[in-house]
Q: What sequence folds into this?
């Protein structure tokens, strides 16, 4: 064990030995959104020093949670990604932490919420895997100028098929989506800032598989 270890025979302590350092879980959060360049990580983690980010990434690579990948031409660049085995195991933990933390957030400020945080760190954390078992739902989010997709298939969030027609499209404000995820408003009440298009069956399925604090799409 390292000097930074809790040195306790406990699964929680062992997990914290790996990911308990400052910024580490937030780096993993960014990588849970998809492959990231070093500069992407810097942009998504304002306040972290370059050398500290590099150190944390090396630690996560040594632990088998993160790997570097070379993208093929024409991109031809190095990106960081969660590993397919150990790395992907952290994603449910991150979503559970996000769900736990949502009620403790201050009220969101319009224009200050990152859309992918609202979608992947907010709504995705509320997926009920049991309710979503056997279901398939493709969601598109056009929020504050960003175009994001989220696909649920058989109880899990998977890589979205952007060539398909979305079942529901959400257009408007990332801050409004966070308010819905926190239960401080409903989708109906937020319709002036967050418009939803799609058929009634898809709306009912959305309401059933995402554990929104207020069931807004009945």
A:
């Amino acid at each position: 064990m390292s000097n930074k270890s809790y040195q306790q025979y406990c699964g929680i302590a062992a997990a914290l030995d790996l990911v308990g350092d400052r910024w580490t879980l937030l780096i993993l959060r960014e990588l849970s959104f998809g492959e990231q360049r070093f500069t992407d990580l810097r942009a998504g983690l304002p306040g972290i020093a370059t050398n500290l980010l590099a150190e944390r990434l090396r630690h996560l690579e040594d632990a088998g949670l993160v790997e570097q990948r070379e993208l093929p031409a024409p991109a031809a660049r190095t990106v960081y990604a969660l590993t397919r085995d150990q790395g992907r195991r952290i994603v449910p933990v991150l979503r559970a932490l996000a769900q736990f933390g949502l009620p403790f957030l201050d009220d969101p400020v319009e224009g200050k919420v990152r859309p992918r945080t609202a979608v992947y760190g907010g709504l995705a954390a509320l997926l009920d895997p049991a309710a979503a078992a056997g279901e398939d739902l493709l969601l598109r989010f056009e929020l504050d100028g960003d175009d994001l997709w989220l696909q649920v298939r058989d109880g899990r969030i998977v890589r979205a098929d952007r060539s398909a027609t979305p079942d529901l499209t959400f257009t408007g404000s990332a801050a409004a989506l966070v308010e819905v995820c926190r239960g401080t408003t409903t989708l109906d009440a937020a319709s002036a800032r967050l418009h939803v298009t799609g058929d009634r069956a898809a709306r009912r399925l959305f309401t059933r598989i995402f554990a929104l604090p207020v069931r807004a799409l009945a």
